[in-house]
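Q: What changes when S-adenosylmethionine is included in the input?
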Amino acid sequence: MTTPNPSKEAFERIQSAFKGLQTVQVVYLGLELGLFDALKRDAHTPESLAAAKALHLPYVRVWMQTAVAFGILAFADGVYRLAPGMETVLLDTDHPRYVGGFARGFLTFLADDFGLYPDAFRDGRVLGFGDHGEAFSEWVSKLTHPMQRLVVAKLLPEHVGEALQTGIDVLDVGCGAGQFLFKLAAQYPNCRFTGIDGDPHGIVLARRASTEKGLSDRITFRHVYGQDMTYQDQFDLVVMFEVLHELPVSVRPGVMSAVYRALRPGGLLFILDETWSDDPRLLSQPEFQMSVLVQFSELVWGNVVYTESEQTRLLHDAGFETIRGDLGGTFTILTARK
Ligand SMILES: C[S@@+](CC[C@H](N)C(=O)[O-])C[C@H]1O[C@@H](n2cnc3c(N)ncnc32)[C@H](O)[C@@H]1O
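A: The predicted holo structure follows.
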């Protein structure tokens, strides 16, 4: 029997975390410098890759060797290739397992945010979602894109059924740059859509894209906070995609009441979000992985991921009875009827 050695285990745990951090750095460089794109097309030596991308050979060589060490590239017969599966997760922006966008954001927007943490921990300051600027709002809209595809293609039809084909009124609360509504509009030509968001950058991006896509007559985008909406019995479906945990806690009851009012009797509320656990021991379980990632990296945005009982109480107090589901054991789906 081996004797437990806590300091050895602690050391190994933290040391392997550095590997994780460096893996993200290697991925970030590969995306930023177009190295993965080049390796997707052809196998390369350091010399051929450095020449193809006009980069400094010694640095490129170490990048490639490090990427092999982390299992991102494979090395055989004197050349380097993307390791199996990497093209999907790093380059296929439509795939539900795409994480390239996360890697980029972690070393740019979220790294900047993290610089605020020591002061924020002292004074509780918040840098809200909408205070980050247009490039940030656009980055977020790309992160949610693959999951939105899945929801539009599979989950919403399961919940809403035929009515989507016939034509209903849909409201997206916290629509961001509008990508979810664009997907719905493409799939369901008979529906009418409204998107609202408190982030002015998201609404600018959404209106611009809507004009470019020729959808302005079918989708209305409004710069309004959820708690200030005054719709009354106007919508058959309200969606909130990765929005609940982003609402400032103080306005959550107001937003949910406004959503309830906005729905027609019998209308459906569809929420996709994360769920927290008050028992920190459970947070190491795979089903909370996304929740931990989101809660810790969005702390300074003022975001709070609610527990199951907090979610249920919030919706119940607004008049809803909720039905819970989950998506791959990672995301929570909450549906409710008025
Ligand atoms: C993670 S983003 C998701 C955006 C979009 N649903 C998507 O899937 O890309 C969360 C959005 O919630 C919006 N939001 C936060 N608080 C809000 C409020 N009180 N009223 C309306 N929108 C709000 C933010 O501005 C942001 O656009």
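Observations recorded in class: Residues 6-32 form the longest helix (27 residues).
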